[in-house]
# Entry
Amino acid sequence: MNRRPDFYNVYLLEILTLFADKGVAIQTAATANATENEMKNLMEELCSLLLPIDALLDHSDFHPDHSPSSLLTTRFRNMWFICVLFNFTPSPQRASCMTEWHIGALSRIAEKTPPIVLEEAYDFITTDLEFNPVLREDYLDKVRCIAP
Amino acid sequence: MHKATLTKYIPLKSSDIKALIPAQVIFLLTSHDLETMRSSRGYVASITTYFLNKGVNSRESLSSCMDSIAEKVVRGCLNELNTRVMQHSLPVTISSELQKLLVASCHRIARARDIAGKYLNRMITSLPSLMCDEPLVCAILEVLTLLRRACEGEYTDEVCLMWHLRCDPPKIFPVQPGPSLHINKIKPYD
# Structure
C-alpha cells in the first residue's frame, strides 16, 4: 500500500462503504431479534474495521481532509453516524467492544475527518438526515426506549 | 437512549431536544463527539463548518442545540488548553488552527462568522500567550489588510460586488500560505 498512494482514496471509500453496510446489517439483525451473542460478534466485527481505516489514514502523505469530494464527505459522515449510534464514541455507556486500541484509532480518524457538513449541500436535513439509508427508523425506534 | 445522552450534554435545551427527530439527535451527538475529540487533539477550527449549511441554520430547534454544542465544545477545549499550557505542551497544530478560525471570523455567512469570532476572542483572552506566535500575528495583519482593501474597493466603486481576495504570495510573511477571503456586502466604514 505504501508504494501505491494513488489507491489510498479508492481503498478508503470502499472500507467506509463496508463499515456503513455492516452498520446497517447490525441494525437489521437487531430488529430481527438476533441473540445477544450474535449481536456481540457483529459489533466486534464492526469495531475491528476501525483499525484498517486508522492504518490507512496514518500515512503522512494522505490528507483526505484537504479538499474532499462530496462522496467522501458523505461516507465519513455515515461512518460517524454509525459510531454514535452504537456508542463507539465517548459516551456514558460506551460499547464493550471498544478497547484502548479502538479508542486511540477512533481519535486519530477524527483528526483526519473532513468537515461533515457541506455548505453547498442542498436540503441537508431531509436528504442526509431524515432519509439517510444508514439510519434505520425501526432500529432508532427500538433504542429510543432504552435508558442510558 | 440517544436523546437522554444529548439532554445530559446540553440540559438547558431539553425542550428543543424534545422536538427533534431521532436522525437529528444522532447528527447533534455526532457533531458533539467528533468535535470534542478533534479539539482535544488540537484541531479547533472545524466547529465553524457546522454553521455554513442553510438547512441546518434555518431549523430553529436544531440550530439552537448546535449553538449550545459549540459552546460546550469551546468550553471543554479551553479547559484542556489551560491545563496543557501549564505543562508547556500545547498541540503544535494550534497556530494553524487559530489562523483558520481567523479567516472563518471574516466568513460571508454571519453565523459562522459569529461563532469563529467568539471562539477566537475567548481563546486569546484566556490564553494571551497564543499571541506570541509570529505566523498568527502576521495572519491577523494580512486579514486586516485584506478587509481594509475590500472596504476601500467597495467605497470607491460604490457597488456591492462579491469579492474574492487572496494574499498569495503573502507580502508580510513569505513562508506561510496567505489567507484568502470571500467577502460580500461589506459596508464601508461600518
Observations:
- Residues 171-176, 185-190 of chain B have pLDDT under 50 and may be disordered.
- The beta strands of chain B are 162-166, 180-184.
- Chain B touches chain A through 33 residues (CB under 8 Å).
